[in-house]
Amino acid sequence: MEKETFQIIKRPGIGNKGEPIKVRANFFEVTKMQKTKIIHYDVTIKPEVKLEEGNVPVARKRPPEDFRITIRKARDIDMEDLFQFLFAKSRMTENCQMAITAMDIIISHEISAKYPTVRNSFYTPQGARSLFGGIEAWQGYYQSARPARGKMMINIDLSATAFYEEGPLIRMVAKILGLRSPNDLRKGLSDKDRQKVEKRIKNLKIRDNHNPENKRKFKIEKLTKTPASHTTFDKDGSRIDVKTYFQNQFNKRLIYPFLPCVVVRKTVYLPLEVCDVIPEQRYMRKLDKNLTDEMMKFTRQNPNVRANKIHDGLNILNYKGNEYLKQFGMEVSRDMAVVNARILPTPTIQYHQSSREHRVRPNGGAWNLRDKKVANGATLSSWSVMVFSNYKHLPDQAIKFFNILDRDPPICRGNPIGNIEESLNKAYLNAKEKARVIKPQLILCILPNAGPELYAEIKRISETAIGVATQCIQSIHMKNPKKQYCANVCLKMNVKLGGENSFLIPEHIQFLIDDPTILMGADVTHPTATADDESPSYAALCGSMNVKASRYAASLRVQTGGTEIIIDLENMVKESLKAFYQTCGLKPKKILFYRDGVSESQFMEVLECELTAIRAACRSLETSYKPNITFVVVQKRHHTRLFPIHGGDRTGNCIPGTVVDMDITHPFEFDFYLLSHAGLLGTSRPAHYRVLYDENGFDANRLQMLSYNLCYVYARCTRAVSLVPPVYYAHLAAARAKIHSPYRDTDTESSKGDKSTATTIGEVKGELRKVMYFM
């Protein structure tokens, strides 16, 4: 069958529901731009000299003195195409995209010569904060040319990344090992310490300092296993150790001869103390939990501070004094854009009719469970408790106090670093015997505040080997349980057991009720940047199982690493449609498909491949089955921020329900920014909804209102969330697929499984697939 081609749909109009307001957005209007052609040249320089990041040539051999430079005209970029696009008179063309790329180059060229630059962001050492281990956080600024209706805008935002601290390498080694100063290294390095240091500094660029007249640059390959006093090499036909060599050759007596050397070439050894770390080197490894937490603290800015810092960035960029902008006839406003927005009305949430307060209309995007019963509570009758801690740390009495009153589930003990499968099987059998059932419902696992490895192993074994739901709790919460924490745990347990926590009243989900409608959320989780080339990606599809969209089932797949298209989507959609039919006996007449994690450059490819797969899934179930499909991409990885002009919530963020669908949105395609959640820390990031295809005749109001209302029925908490739940669930399910895999890229050698099994994941046991086990 010939592959159908699609076009991204146009905006059906602007929404008008809600209270009109004005907000600021971190966009700055391009007030003047040239209409003449821009000429694009390709420049090649031969022979090539490889420059490492930070424009530092690494010493290997002397670079050539003669170069051949070739300048070739590549194309004329007709700016008129861009103006046609901005005024909705033509679609995006290659020439139009080149014009936007040219603007990005023009605004970034001058700054990239002054500061380290990564794609659209540049970083400055001003205000850098030392983290630990010789790593520091640098403040950066992101800038990008963005099209809007009738104009170009420059999106400016804060950015941050980690750099190695410049200076003596030996100081960095001390910091990596958590020591106060190099003096604390006098005991030498154990094998474990040496391996830890080597892993951190491998590929780091350094400069030697023992010969001031000839400072050379190198890249570290590894550390010697022997100290400088015992590391020898051949010189003039005899062996000499590094310590003696530096004394004889440079009259330099080593202070730390008991420490290893860095190897910078096959037989070139440098003592740690004669090496300095070259400045402006990004830390490219995956940040561990501690570094990630510290980086989050560094980047977290409340809205007022963030807006002020963006203006600081504007001063550094200095568009007005930029010679390159002047040469291309560009001028940029210094004022942050004031845009039209609306605050959508808050929906009403339905709980069980017997609740003292069975309907609630939240205030400020949050509420609680006081005087409320879940809409459909599951009955918990067969379970056990598995405690990965000893009696002294957590006695049985504390566990019984935390557990459901008047029930006495068996309590088992397990070793957190022992045989987890054996422990869980024991708990499963004890629950089975105590309740006299064929299949127990749940194992409550109490964890000793350990890392993620124990949690991952519990989930993998319980869901793919045993076939029982688990609820993990950190032991710290057992000793002094808070009501809100207990409520959230109960919400998760209820849906894992097949219950439903809350609904939206019918008028808020009219689109779902008018005709049977299935909501689907899809996401792909990719390997980390530091994972090896064979690490796979994990895809998840979560589909609603009833008309009220209060229960979801997940389909999981593993696929080639880095592949954004969901390869087996046809079969995953088929599984979701079958689950919907088996649960409520209805065939969906409409599919609302929310897709997470797709960049603009991938829109057409994802739309064509995945929409084709959805249709094929429908046809495979029944030749004449053709439900109406709406395909919406949801983006969170963008740099748009909204700032209230008057009011705002208690954190200084815009109020939940703030929606923007003009002024900074696409010139003519159907998109909007929706801030659906209440701010907690820092500046809230709105979700960007991009409608690529629509057979359901959505106007702006209907899709904006439905998407916002759905954010109030996320099953894990009593807060409106930042994304529609089907996408949130897909994200959780994709993370769970990674846990189910025998190959998990956690940036440690010991955690990596057999690479031959990288294309498989453990299959979730039958009964669990019908419930939201991934919560």
From TrEMBL:
Family, per entry: Belongs to the argonaute family.
Native source species: Rhizophagus irregularis
Residue span(s) of domain PAZ: 168-279
Pfam families, per the entry: ArgoL1, ArgoL2, ArgoMid, PAZ, Piwi
MF GO annotations: RNA binding
CDD domains linked to this entry: PAZ_argonaute_like, Piwi_ago-like
Membrane spanning residue stretches: none
Identification of the protein by name: Piwi-domain-containing protein
UniProt cross-references to SMART domains, sorted A to Z: DUF1785 (SM01163), PAZ (SM00949), Piwi (SM00950)
Domain of life: Eukaryota
Domain Piwi: 442-734
Cross-referenced PANTHER family: EUKARYOTIC TRANSLATION INITIATION FACTOR 2C
